[in-house]
Every structure is written in C-alpha cells, then in structure tokens.
Amino acid sequence: MSTAPRTARGNRTRAKILAAAEQVFADLGYHDASIVKITEAAGVAMGTFYLYFEGKHEVFVELVDDLNQRVRQAMYEASSQAPNRLEAERAGFRAFFRFTAEHPALYRVIRQAEFVAPDALRRHYQRIVEGYVTGLDKARANGEVGDVDPTVAAWALMGIGEIVGMRWVLWGGADGPADGAGPGQEDRRPEIPEDVFDQTMQFIERALAPRADPSSAPGASGPTSQEGPRA
C-alpha cells in the first residue's frame, strides 16, 4: 500500500514521482523501467521513493489510478456546465482529446496495464463508464437523448473516444504515426484536427439524438391514404 503524504511538501514530492513514473513507463515500458530510472527522472533519492511506494508495481498501479482520476476530472469540469447532454458530450470529448494530447502516456500506460495490472485496467474503464451511465440515464429520463441503453452507449462512446484519439492525436499525421512521435520524443501531441472532431461529434450526436415521435408528424393522427373517413 502507498503511504499518504502528511504535508504539502510530501504531496508535491509524491506527485513528482508519479509524473516521472508516467514518463519512464511510457518511454521504456513496464519491464525496462526501474525505480532507479524513476527516481533519477524525479530528482529524488531512492529512500524518498520508498517513503511513498513499496515498489515498481505499486507505483505503476497508482499511476493508472492517477491518470484515470485526472482524465475524468478534466472531462467533468468541461462538461458539467453544458446546457444539455449533447453539448456535454461535445465538451467532454474535447477535454478528453486535449488531455490525450497533453498526456500521451495515458494510452501506453493503460495498454501495459492489460498485462501488468489487469485489475487496474478494469477499474480504469469501469470508473469512466459509471459516470457516463449516470449522465446518460438522467439525460434519457429528461428526453435529451433517445431511448438508448445507457451502459451499452457508455462503452460505445468510450471506445469511439479512445480509438479516434489514438488515430488522430497519438499517431497524428494523415497516414500514420506522427514524425517524432516515438516514446519520449515529445511531451505533447497535436490536438485533434477540427474537421475530425466535428465529424466524430456529428456521428455521436446522431446516435444519441432523441427520435422524432411518429405521432407528432404532420397528418399522423388523421386517416391514411388507405383508410376512408371515419363516421
């Protein structure tokens, strides 16, 4: 178990170690990373590391949880002021893509977690989905989205965001990985192209938009062409 810092200075030191771990795990991968490399990147002594973490695996799991908390917070802050669910989706997706541009390690670390810390991987996705389901369920009750299954929609939307972000933010360029986009060569990726963002959101908005009530269509309540007038 990690040790919670008791002082503001301790919080800063722990955050510095996590930031260094984010870079080292992204650059080298879990198996080639080491506590020595993490402490060197953080500029702290080995003994300081062990004040907060028991070892490499624990700091990796903490990093997954930390990235998860930060990306969810970024999405929440962006979407919470939106006037309706569709606008909230737009704001939340933009925040996600921006976070991905600033923290490309999110992709690399989460993919490593599949093999290194599968429980942390499941927790990462489940926490995102739980918040999504709550928002979609409320929006459906308010008529802001169509009659979608909130759980299925949440997983589908998360998948769209992850794959689109990987293709146009992490990889970049028109035909593949961005120039110089190898691990450790850049701390930030270009944000998603605006036309790609707009196309993605049009697709999502069409999928979520409330369906028109057939009974409200012009002439829907009157006799059809195959019916005669009623007495």
List the helices and strands and how they pair.
Blueprint: H1 8-28, H2 35-42, H3 46-52, H4 56-79, H5 85-102, H6 105-116, H7 118-141, H8 150-171, H9 194-208
Biased composition (Low complexity): 209-225
GO molecular function: DNA-binding transcription factor activity; transcription cis-regulatory region binding
Region (Disordered): 175-195, 207-231
Quick description:
With 231 residues, the protein is mainly α. It has helices spanning 8-28, 35-42, 46-52, 56-79, 85-102, 105-116, 118-141, 150-171, 194-208.
Give the overall shape: elongated
Distance between the termini: 79 Å
- Secondary-structure element order, N to C: HHHHHHHHH
- Binned strand content: under 5%
Number of helix segments? 9
The biggest sheet amounts to: none
**CATH homologous superfamily annotation of the domain at 56-209:** Tetracycline Repressor, domain 2
The number of E-state strands comes to 0
What share of residues is helical?
55-70%
Rg on CA atoms, Å: 23 Å
Which segments are poorly predicted (pLDDT under 50) over 5 or more consecutive residues?
178-185, 221-231
Helical/strand content category: mainly alpha
Average pLDDT taken over every residue: 87
The level 1 CATH classification of the domain at 56-209 is Mainly Alpha
Quote the CATH topology of the domain at 56-209: Tetracycline Repressor, domain 2
- CATH architecture designation of the domain at 56-209: Orthogonal Bundle
DNA-binding region: 34-53
Keywords: DNA-binding, Transcription, Transcription regulation
Region (Disordered): 175-195, 207-231
GO molecular function, one term: DNA-binding transcription factor activity
